[in-house]
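Hi R.,

As promised on Friday, here is the backbone we talked about, encoded as C-alpha cells. Could you run it through your design pipeline when you get a chance and send me back a sequence?
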C-alpha cells in the first residue's frame, strides 16, 4: 500500500513509521529542520513500546512528490488544515482514503469540503504513555 503522511510530527511520524516498518511504501511530508533530519538520518521514533528508525525514509516538503496514494494520514496542526488539504489534491485518486488524525472536531469536515467527503475517514486519537 502506498501511504502519504501529511504532517510527519509526533502522531504522523509514529503511525507512518509503524506502517513503514511493516513494509508499506510510506512518504513523509515535513518542513524545515525536521525534514532535513529525516532526510539525513531517517525517521527516528522513540516510544515506550520500542524505539526504531526508518532509514532511508521517503521525505519531502511537497505532497505532490509522493505520487498518488492509496491512504493519506492527515496529521497537520488544525490551523494548517485548509492549506494542506489543497496541497494533497494532486495525490488523490478516486479510491484514495484520507484518515484525519487531528485535534478539532471540524477538521475532517474542512478537509472534505476541499477534497470531497467520499475520501474522508475521521478518527479520534488518544496517545498516552505508561
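Update: got your reply. Pasting your designed sequence below so it's all in one thread:
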Amino acid at each position: 500500500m502506498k501511504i502519504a503522511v501529511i504532517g510527519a510530527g509526533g502522531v504522523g511520524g509514529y503511525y507512518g513509521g509503524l506502517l513503514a516498518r511493516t513494509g508499506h511504501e510510506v512518504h513523509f511530508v515535513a518542513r524545515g529542520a525536521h525534514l532535513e533530519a529525516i532526510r539525513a538520518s531517517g525517521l527516528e521514533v522513540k516510544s515506550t513500546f520500542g524505539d526504531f528508525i526508518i532509514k532511508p525514509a521517503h521525505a519531502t516538503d511537497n505532497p505532490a512528490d509522493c505520487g498518488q496514494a492509496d491512504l493519506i494520514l492527515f496529521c497537520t496542526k488544525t490551523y494548517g488544515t485548509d492549506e494542506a488539504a489543497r496541497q494533497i489534491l494532486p495525490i488523490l485518486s478516486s479510491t484514495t482514503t484520507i484518515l484525519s488524525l487531528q485535534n478539532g472536531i471540524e477538521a475532517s469536515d474542512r478537509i472534505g469540503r476541499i477534497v470531497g467527503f467520499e475520501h474522508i475517514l475521521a478518527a479520534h486519537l488518544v496517545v498516552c504513555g505508561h
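One thing I noticed while checking it: The domain at 2-122 is CATH 3.40.50.720 (Rossmann fold).

Thanks again,
M.
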